Amino acid sequence: MPDSDGMLTRRTILGLVAIAPLAIAAQAHAASCADPATLSAAQKSMRKSLGFKSPAPDPAKHCATCAFFTGKGADCGQCALLSGGIVPANGVCDSWAKKG
Ligand code: SF4
Asked: Does ligand 1 have an atom closer than 6 angstroms to the CB of 89?
C-alpha cells in the first residue's frame, strides 16, 4: 500500500513480491485446465468431433470417472483420446467409458 506520501513502502513491495508466484500459479492452473480460449483449432475440432461438453449433463458420467482420464488434480486431468489434452474433471464426451 502507498504510504501517506503516495509511495510504496519497502514492506509493501516485499509483500507483493512474496505473493506474486502464488497469483501466477493460480492463473496457470486455471489456464491449464481446458480453458477453451487457449485451445488450438485442432484441439477444438477434436473436442467437437467427440461431442465434448463441460459440465457433463449426467453427474455419474464425467471425465473423472472415464477410463481415458488421468487425473492431474481435483478438477482437471489428461484425456488419452484427446492426445493427452487437458480436460476438466466435470466434462464428458461421446466416448466416455467407465473407469475399470
Ligand atoms: S474420453 Fe471423453 S469423457 Fe473420457 S476423459 Fe476424454 S473427454 Fe472425458
From this structure: no
Domain range for 3: 1-32
pTM value surpassing 0.90: no
Sequential DSSP letters for 12-77: HHHHHHHHHHHHHHHHHHHHHTT-GGG--HHHHHHHHHTT-BSS-SSTTSSGGGBTTEEESSSSEE
**Quick check: CB of 69 below 6 Å from ligand 1?**
yes
39 and 27 in one domain?
A: no
What are the tens digits of pLDDT across the range 4-47?
A: 555 566 665 445 444 444 343 434 444 457 578 888 899 999 99
